[in-house]
Automatic annotation (TrEMBL):
Function according to Swiss-Prot or TrEMBL: Required for the formation of a threonylcarbamoyl group on adenosine at position 37 (t(6)A37) in tRNAs that read codons beginning with adenine. Is involved in the transfer of the threonylcarbamoyl moiety of threonylcarbamoyl-AMP (TC-AMP) to the N6 group of A37, together with TsaE and TsaB. TsaD likely plays a direct catalytic role in this reaction.
The organism of origin for this protein: Mucilaginibacter auburnensis
GO MF annotation terms: iron ion binding; tRNA N(6)-L-threonylcarbamoyladenine synthase activity
Name of protein: tRNA N6-adenosine threonylcarbamoyltransferase
PANTHER family (alphabetical): TRNA N6-ADENOSINE THREONYLCARBAMOYLTRANSFERASE (PTHR11735), TRNA N6-ADENOSINE THREONYLCARBAMOYLTRANSFERASE, MITOCHONDRIAL (PTHR11735:SF6)
């Protein structure tokens, strides 16, 4: 019955979770509103706010799970990839907590954890499956052969899908993070009103920087002709941008699943909260007779629940790490 305390602090969310025998009993997430005004995450501010949030987040996670500090068997934490200053706060806390309470440490790769979020709920994919991991920092098609045997078969060559959402919203004058706002406006708009280009990249790799530039020029030219262009058309602009990002993501994902003969398709990361993408994945799976999997919303965006489930599976394998562990801004699978 291992009890795992998990810590996540790779970007701008401070999160703590408790997992008892593979069941995630609490998942506390402290968001950082401070970045809204800057149009993106400010690393220095993020690490400072992590320092303020980490202890209350852990206390709340233990309280919500009705678990006592003395019942914990191991501390799992995100080692990377992410912002170094942010990671340092979580890693240092985990190391200090483990040292003070004589507990083993379990290091977790944030990108693997996004994929392993699928093992939190009731409905779990079967190996091998294909996971589209789409977040603010990453866009990857991952072939998942086992819990910790994953291969990236395609990824973005420049911007991530979430970055494309956030940069578009910045062009439109919306606050950060813009993805949820694009989602909100897109529900009210006509996705076929404006056409944006689909990049022609070989294999299963993605590119979003050309799309961002075409959106920038499109807005600039239209605002020059009509200063109210954005306000007058916000719903249709968001719906059209969202549709293009969704078709770029899913066209490649579908081809990859066919080529690898995959029957279980999954999606993870913050952008998988997007309504259009969720509907698109469902339609794609139903058309092909595949099973599809999307984690519950709280386990899509950055959260310690996914670190806890990854930590649990590492605990079962007996994979622990020493007190000399340091965070990694870049961390391959
Ligand atoms: O996984 P995540 O929480 O953090 C990273 O590891 O990056 O992903 C955050 C990203 C942001 O770019 C945010 O705009 C996007 O996920 N996002 C969305 C939605 N909710 C979050 N994008 C589109 N529609 C949403 N509903
Ligand atoms: Zn993430």
């Amino acid at each position: 019955m291992p009890v795992i305390l998990a810590i996540e602090s790779s970007c701008d969310d401070t999160s703590a979770a408790v997992c008892v025998d593979g069941a995630v009993l609490s998942n506390v997430i402290a968001n950082q509103a401070i970045h809204e005004a800057y149009g993106g995450v400010v690393p220095e501010l993020a690490s400072r706010v992590h320092q303020q949030n980490i202890v209350p987040a852990v206390q709340q996670a233990l309280l919500n799970a009705k678990v006592n500090k003395n019942d914990i068997d191991a501390v799992a934490f995100t080692r990377g990839p992410g912002l170094l200053g942010s990671l340092l706060v979580g890693v240092s806390f985990a190391k200090g907590f483990a040292l003070a309470n004589s507990l083993p440490l379990i290091e977790v790769n944030h990108m693997q954890a996004h994929v392993l979020a699928h093992f939190i709920g009731e409905k779990k994919p079967s190996f091998p499956f294909l996971c589209l991991t789409v977040s603010g920092g990453h866009t990857q098609i991952v072939l998942v052969k086992d819990y910790f045997d994953m291969e990236v078969i395609g990824q973005t060559l420049d911007d991530a899908a979430g970055e494309a959402m956030d940069k578009t919203s910045k062009i439109l004058g919306l606050p950060y993070p813009g993805g949820p706002l694009i989602d909100k406006y897109a529900r009210l708009g006509n996705p076929d009103r404006f056409k944006f280009p689909e990049p022609q990249i070989p294999g299963f790799d993605y590119s979003f920087s050309g799309l961002k530039t075409s959106i920038l020029y499109f807005i600039r030219d239209n605002v020059a002709a009509n200063p109210n262009f954005i306000q007058d058309n916000i719903n249709d602009i968001c719906a059209s941008v969202e549709k293009r990002i969704v078709t770029i993501l899913l066209n490649k994902f579908e081809r990859a699943a066919r080529e690898y003969g995959i029957k279980d398709v999954a999606m993870a990361g913050g952008v998988s909260a997007n309504t259009g993408l969720r509907q698109g994945l469902q339609q794609m799976a139903e058309k092909n007779g595949w099973n599809y999997f999307i984690p519950a919303m709280q386990y899509c965006t950055d959260n310690a629940g996914m670190i806890a489930i990854a930590g649990y599976h590492k605990y079962l394998k007996g994979e622990f790490t020493g007190q000399n562990v340091a965070p990694l801004a870049r961390m391959p699978f």
